[in-house]
């Protein structure tokens, strides 16, 4: 039944849109092309090597930013959640930087690194870093002391064993949620930065389509961006259900 509602939530608006723009002419198709036209344009674009290259570049940047930001965010977040001292030192700094729009940091990052490509990935990685950090921190801090004491009573006295047997499995559900949200955040920031500073990628394609007033290409680029985001989200959700099946459908997400 849930699958029916999921399909319906997409199908019904698309049918209404198609009828309004393509059949009854209620809306101007030059501003809101019918879905069938957008799908046709998207398929046509995917046959073009230049567009596929733009899509691949965006995917590569997104994955690079996500892997770097998620790895560092997980390590720092777990340390902050496990150690009150580490949290006391790093939490004010993280709380001060996190609300800043990451794209606004791009000029500073370019100035410091001297490379637009590297700066693009670092800027997106920063956004991912904080999303993962807060979730990992909350997952680690949510582990009750009784679990630590039981592990120690059973011989887990070293830091490594406590990490492997208590900290990692106890925080894994929220860490995975953070990784899923972090990947989506990476895609969002990468496309946004490509819009303003990229010479390739989906964001750059969208900017060119806007500047040339090619509305159908603009919608097609947005469709591909949305499909990528959906694939990333559902792909990681499937991995999450396999790794922590007891947590599926019962998310306590810190950062949305």
Helix-strand blueprint:
Blueprint (H helix, E strand, L loop, with lengths): L1 H22 L11 H12 L2 H34 L1 H14 L8 H8 L2 H26 L3 H9 L5 H39 L4 H10 L3 H29 L13
Keywords:
single chain, about 260 residues, MetI-like fold, 10 helices
Order of helices and strands: HHHHHHHHHH
Broad structural category: mainly alpha
Largest sheet: none
CATH architecture of the largest domain: Orthogonal Bundle
Assign the CATH topology of the largest domain.
Answer: MetI-like fold
Regarding CATH, which class of the largest domain? Mainly Alpha
**What is the CA-atom radius of gyration, in angstroms?**
22 Å
Number of separate helices? 10
Shape summary: globular
Regions with little confidence, pLDDT below 50 for 5+ residues = none
User: What is the residue-mean pLDDT, rounded to a whole number?
Assistant: 86
Q: In percent, how helical is the residue content?
A: over 70%
Beta-strand percentage range: under 5%
The CATH superfamily of the largest domain bears the name MetI-like
């Amino acid at each position: 039944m849930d699958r029916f509602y999921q399909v319906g939530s997409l199908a019904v608006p698309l049918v209404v849109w198609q009828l309004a723009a393509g059949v009854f002419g209620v809306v101007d198709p030059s501003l809101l092309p019918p879905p069938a036209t957008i799908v046709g344009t998207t398929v046509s674009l995917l046959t073009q090597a230049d567009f596929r290259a733009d899509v691949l570049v965006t995917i590569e940047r997104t994955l690079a930013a996500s892997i770097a930001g998620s790895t560092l965010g997980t390590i720092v977040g777990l340390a902050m959640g496990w150690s009150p001292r580490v949290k006391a030192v790093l939490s004010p700094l993280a709380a001060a930087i996190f609300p800043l729009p990451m794209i606004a940091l791009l000029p500073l990052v370019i100035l410091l690194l001297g490379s637009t490509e590297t700066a693009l990935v670092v800027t997106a990685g920063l956004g991912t870093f904080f999303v993962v950090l807060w979730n990992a921190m909350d997952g680690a801090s949510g582990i009750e002391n009784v679990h630590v004491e039981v592990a120690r009573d059973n011989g887990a006295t070293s830091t490594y064993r406590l990490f492997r047997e208590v900290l990692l499995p106890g925080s894994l559900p929220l860490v995975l949620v953070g990784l899923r949200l972090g990947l989506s955040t990476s895609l969002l920031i990468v496309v946004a930065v490509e819009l303003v500073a990229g010479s390739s990628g989906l964001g750059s394609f969208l900017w060119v389509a806007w500047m040339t007033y090619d509305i159908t290409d603009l919608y097609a680029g947005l469709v591909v961006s949305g499909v990528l985001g959906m694939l990333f989200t559902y792909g990681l959700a499937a991995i999450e259900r396999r790794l922590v099946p007891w947590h599926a459908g019962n998310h306590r997400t810190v950062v949305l």
